[in-house]
Amino acid sequence: MADILNDVKNLPDISFIDDLRLEDIQTLLINTFQSKYKQITGKKITLARADPNRVILLAAAQLIYQGLQHIDKAGKMNFLKYSMNDYLENLAALKGVTRNGAKKASVPVLWKLAEARESAVGIPAGTRVTASFDIYFETTEYNEIPAGETEKTIIMTCTEAGDAGNGFLPGELNVLVDPVGFVESVDNTETSSGGSDIEDDESLAERTFIAPSAYSTAGPDDAYIYWVKDFDPQIGDVLPTSPTPGVVDIRFMMDDGSIPDDTEIAGVLEYLQQRKKRPLTDLVQVGAPEAVQYSINARYFINTSSRAVAASIQQQAAAALVAYQQWQAAKIGRDINPDKLREMLMAVGVKRVEITEPVFTVLEDTQVAVLDTSSLSYGGLEYD
Fold first, then answer.
1. In a 3-state reduction of DSSP, which class is residue 294?
2. Domains in the chain, number
3. Which tens digits make up the pLDDT trace of 266-321?
4. Domain range enclosing 43
């Protein structure tokens, strides 16, 4: 997300109080008092540290400075660079953008009967399944397994909104909480997904920034990016292209660098088919980027002069490896670049790095790097 907001975050800092500090207010009050005292009495006065008048002025400076901080904050909350929380929501409303609420995860569940029945077997709305009786999925409407058939796949929705319903692997949701006659087993056939917490400030600010593009029905890149991200705040990089006239091909990644599943892709496609979101002449295709697997096999060394902080550097090197993996997967079409790994490791105090894998690989616009295996070893201390 940060890439789109970089232009905003890099704008010059502004201050509605000319960057005044508490010390500036204190000095201003004391100097003004001493100057005014001499003007009125004709006598010079210096306020000692324990002078009651000085203590009063310092207390007043504290209150005045707090008031100035509120003034500075009130001014800054009108700008996307600084705005947050309720202020950001009101700023976004000027562009017709509202914060997305929490969403519930969903998953297809296969219901099986012990044997075919002569009449349909009804499954009431609200019937629940679970994995371990902490998170539940339920049917949102009445369903039934037709007469003569033994199974049916039903899309079930988590009873709780948020991320907690994501990540149940196929077969984990296999406990029927509310018994239904003649049902032998239930099993989810895909990994549950689509659940998200309330949209965070960064995602809302990003959508606010690109919102003007959505006003057009001409199909600019930013407009498609806006609507895809509007569907799910957990979506990260979005790449719209037009391989042939009239065709819009959209590839996207999740914010954590993972490849979207079929359920998420279908949801985005259905959302983009709405008349106000898609030009009439555009044929919209939605899919995941092509995954290009790569491995990491590297060894690093630390200067002998850094012996005292070697343990800390090793911890930071492990964190740098994770950061590199996230960076590599964060953008569709980003080349596999071992020099970035070297840069990140050197930045935390590593002397040198031997990288066997990955090798530099140019990716196509619709491809994304996906980590296969990873090995980063410590080679020991070396003389500077």
1. strand
2. 4
3. 889 888 887 677 777 778 889 899 999 999 999 999 999 999 999 999 999 999 99
4. 2-82
